[in-house]
């Protein structure tokens, strides 16, 4: 698991705990978003249906940039739509389950339709702050089988695009492919990592949590604390295929901050310095028209409460 910045400093001052693998020294740390202060809870990579709607003005993918990404107080995230979302639907923000303001969900815990007034800094293409968005609820959050949180905002895609000229990213409905060129876009750090999907992990185990069919990056995506929740974007389609969440910091086996890979035969592999993400293709199958969560829909495999 990656620690948020305050959590990292507290750990260094109070317990001498291990700092972020590959993170800059305290003197060189980039400035966090102006309105956000990282919370002091340890974390993973904390600081980190219908026809195609025409009025979202979706275009062929351009070069991947910061437009549509968001900065949370302790993580990164993105303004997202589902393949069947309409412009008039309430907008959604995607991040990690371990980025929830209520703390880490316990193994087996699933948060559904929980009230929230959390704020998000919406970024433009160059990483500048375009707006502050506000949630009305956590639609879904868990760290079981996957590591995801989905917030519903108090506004629509159409309103956001009309006011700020920023469209949502689309969550791809298909499983990602090994070898695909990707970019991990951190709204928190305003930094983009470029690499490829190295492969998929049958089970990724970290401390008390286990995730299924995780994405493993090639080594050039050396993500750090604060990048948790960053969208993983397929550079060929411009669509979100995963959400960044963790990495093995110092070579330990299956411990916090040091996830291990477990194959179908129970064989454990540790890859120090390698980072991971959780696939998002299963999310669209769990939403009905109007961006309404329905975990009973056919094909929905997200864990239920």
Question: What is the topology?
Answer:
Blueprint: H1 5-14, E1 69-71, E2 76-81, E3 90-95, E4 110-115, E5 119-123, E6 129-142, E7 148-156, H2 157-164, E8 169-170, E9 181-186, E10 191-206, E11 209-217, E12 231-234, E13 240-247, E14 260-262, E15 268-269, E16 275-279, E17 287-288, E18 292-293
Descriptive labels:
mainly beta; 18 strands; globular
Quick overview of this protein structure:
With 305 residues, the chain is mostly beta strands. Helices cover 6% and strands 35% of the residues. The longest helix has 10 residues, at 5-14.
Characterize the structure shown.
The protein is mainly beta and 305 residues long. The protein contains two helices and 18 strands. The strands form three sheets. Strands 1-2-3-7-6-5 form a six-stranded antiparallel barrel. The two termini are 24 Å apart. The model is unreliable at 5-43 and 48-60 (pLDDT under 50).
Rounded radius of gyration (Å): 18 Å
Low-confidence stretches: 5-43, 48-60
How large a portion of the residues is in β-strands, by DSSP E?
35-45%
Portion of residues in helices?
A: under 10%
Provide the residue-averaged pLDDT.
86
Per the principal axes of the C-alpha atoms, what is the gross shape? globular
């Amino acid at each position: 698991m990656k620690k948020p910045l305050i959590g990292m400093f507290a750990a260094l001052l109070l317990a001498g705990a291990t700092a972020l693998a590959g993170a800059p020294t305290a003197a060189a740390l980039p400035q966090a978003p102006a309105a956000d202060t990282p919370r002091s809870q340890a974390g993973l990579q904390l600081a980190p249906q219908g026809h195609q709607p025409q009025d979202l003005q979706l275009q062929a993918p351009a070069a991947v940039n910061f437009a549509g990404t968001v900065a949370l107080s302790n993580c990164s995230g993105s303004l997202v739509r589902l393949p069947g979302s309409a412009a008039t639907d309430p907008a959604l923000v995607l991040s990690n389950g371990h980025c929830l303001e209520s703390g880490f969900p316990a193994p087996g815990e699933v948060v559904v339709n929980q009230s929230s007034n959390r704020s998000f800094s919406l970024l433009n293409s160059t990483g500048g702050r375009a707006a502050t968005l506000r949630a009305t609820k956590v639609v879904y959050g868990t760290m079981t089988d996957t590591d995801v949180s989905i917030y519903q905002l108090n506004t629509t895609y159409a309103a956001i695009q009309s006011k700020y000229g920023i469209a949502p990213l689309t969550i791809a409905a298909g499983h990602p492919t090994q070898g695909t060129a990707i970019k991990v876009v951190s709204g928190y750090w305003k930094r983009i990592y470029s690499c490829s999907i190295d492969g998929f992990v049958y089970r990724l185990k970290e401390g008390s949590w286990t995730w299924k069919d995780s994405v493993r990056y090639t080594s050039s995506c050396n993500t750090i604390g604060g990048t948790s929740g960053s969208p993983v974007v397929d550079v060929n389609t411009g669509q979100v295929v995963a959400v960044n969440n963790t990495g093995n910091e110092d070579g330990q086996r299956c411990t916090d901050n040091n996830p291990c890979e477990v194959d179908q035969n129970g064989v454990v592999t540790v890859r120090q310095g390698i980072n991971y993400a959780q696939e998002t293709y299963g999310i669209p199958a769990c939403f009905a028209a109007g961006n309404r969560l329905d975990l009973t829909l056919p094909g929905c495999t997200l864990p239920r409460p």
